[in-house]
Amino acid sequence: MSASSATTMASTAEISSSPEQVVSQFLDSIRAFQYDKAKDAVDKQKEQVKSSSPESAMWLTILSALGQFAVAEKSYSSFLYLSSKWFGRKDAKSLYDVVAAECRKIEEYSMKPQAKLSAVAHVCGQLLPYVQVKCQMIDFFENLHSAATKSSDKENLLTKIQLVLRGSNNKFYHPQLAPLKSVFITECEVIESLLQSDIAMSRWLYTESLLHLQMAHNNLSKLLAMATTLPQSHLIKRTFLGMKTLTPYLHTWLKQYKNAVYSKFTLYFYEVLSKYCPHGDMRPHLNRCSIDYYAKLTAFHKKTDAYLIALVLNSEGLLVSGPGYSYSSIPPQTLQGKEAFITIFGYPTNVLDCGELSRLPCLPSFYQTSLVMFMSTKERQLNLLEKPVDFYDDRNKELYLVSRIDPTISLVLIYRSKKSEKEKKGIISFVTEVSSSLRYTKVFSELRPS
Question: How far apart are CA 432 and CA 363, in angstroms?
Answer without folding.
Answer: 22
